[in-house]
Amino acid sequence: MKQTDSTLPGRAIRAAALLATLGLALPAAAQQAPPVAPPAAAVPQAAPAGPLSLMQAVEYALQNNLNVRLSQLQAELNEATLRQSRLQQLPTAQANASQTWNYGTNVDPLTYTFQSQTTRANNFSASAGLNIFSGFQVRNTIRRNGLDYQAALLDIDQARNDLSLNVASAYLQYLLGEELLRASQLRIDTDQQQIERTQKLLRAGAVAESNLLDAQAQLASDEVSVVTAQNQRDLARLQVAQLLNLDQARTSSLQLQVPTLPDPDEMPAMDADADGTYQIAQGTQPQVKAADLRVQSAVRGVEVARGAYYPRLTFGASIFSGYSSARIARKLTGDSTIVPSGFIYQVTPNGPQAVPGVFAGILQPRFETLSEGFGSQVKNNIGKQLSFNLIVPILNGWQARTNVQRSVIGVKQAELRAEQTRLTLRQTIQQAYADALAAQRRYASNKRQVEALTTAYRNAEIRFNNGLLNGTDFNQAKNNLAGAESSMIQAKYEYLFRRKVLDFYQGKPLDL
């Protein structure tokens, strides 16, 4: 027979699509107390033995999901950036050493004389510098990077909350598939019993053969509903396994608990309206806190850019020495020579007269010219230097002013993003609250419809067994009841999911 939208397969497909849409469309959930995050590169933990509860599935996913681990690595990068900016306050120091060979005509690096020979030269130096003042740029950079690091930590919480709700969505889709499957299997049992009764009535001549054919067609239709529910359940289980980052072997063996969930009319009334939930979530949501921190970071960015207007004062100290193979030294040999310096005169009545054969001389020691040793040159050539450097910016192509203007615009963008985050949060909570109320009302009306259609179906079954109702009308009554039951199950799980979302925004644990 022709399948209509009110039959169980159509309802089941629509229910699965609806819950899938709910899971994908949800933003972040409310922040819980931030747990200690595991190392980002940690090896995935083994899945717990036995069927997983929702809480166990969420905890396992938080330890092994790749998106959460990527957020942790990003936070580690921000921490390294913060640590480096703090180290910028320390002095800088470096040591240099070089060795060169000069050929042909060259200038000796130590004597600064022109020479035409091959020389080997060594230079050694060590220097240190300290930034005394740079327009408070270092201090403001540290504060800005600190705010970025705090925002990155909140991004981890945001990723964990998003993952938690995605796991809950897939988990509830699995439970929906299980409940639809149970309902479909019960209808198949009823169909088989009906076929047996119809066959007996047909052999007794109480009903026409068309009634048996209609019953068999209904059984085939309900078997399609079973396959549809099985596919929905298996796809939901696969989605849970993917969120848990399970391999193929553990995906095949994954089992989920199927708890008995209360109906919406058995649950306590929602204790908060949309505005009350928003006020709670606004103070606990990690994306709101992260957006506010990024506004503060952008303000610090303006201060960093304005630091380029100020003069810069630095202090430097250095020590250096060197060696040149062309440098020579004079060394006493121990011998000496007398160098004539003139005649010796004596006073006579006729005036001073030179004494014949006698000369005056100077005793001059002898020296040996040698290349000065490496150690003595390094020791004798040591030089030291202290310096203060002041740089006053005058004109640099308006780069500083342009950077300040960009930073100011960045602050405005961050403020708008923070406002947009709050607006999105408010709208999401309002939508979840409205959807929960609508699902609750729809469940109540569907429940009344199921009760009425159940009575009508029982009456139709009695008339059909007595030959007073044809198979087509009887199957129509049965399909109407199946459609109403499917709509009631759909409304139940939509309400449960929206209720859990609102509870999570209020800081309550995510559990069934």
From TrEMBL:
Domain of life where this protein originates: Bacteria
Gene Ontology cellular component annotations, sorted alphabetically: cell outer membrane; efflux pump complex
Residues in the signal sequence: 1-30
Coiled coil feature spans: 63-90
Main location: membrane
Location relative to the cell: Cell outer membrane
Gene3D superfamilies for this protein: Outer membrane efflux proteins (OEP)
Keyword Oxidoreductase in record: no
SUPFAM superfamilies linked to this entry: Outer membrane efflux proteins (OEP) (SSF56954)
GO molecular function ontology, one term from the record: porin activity
InterPro entries: OMP_efflux (IPR003423), TolC-like (IPR051906)
Keywords: Cell outer membrane, Coiled coil, Membrane, Signal, Transmembrane, Transmembrane beta strand, Transport
Family from the record: Belongs to the outer membrane factor (OMF) (TC 1.B.17) family.
Name this polypeptide is given: TolC family protein
Organism: Hymenobacter gummosus
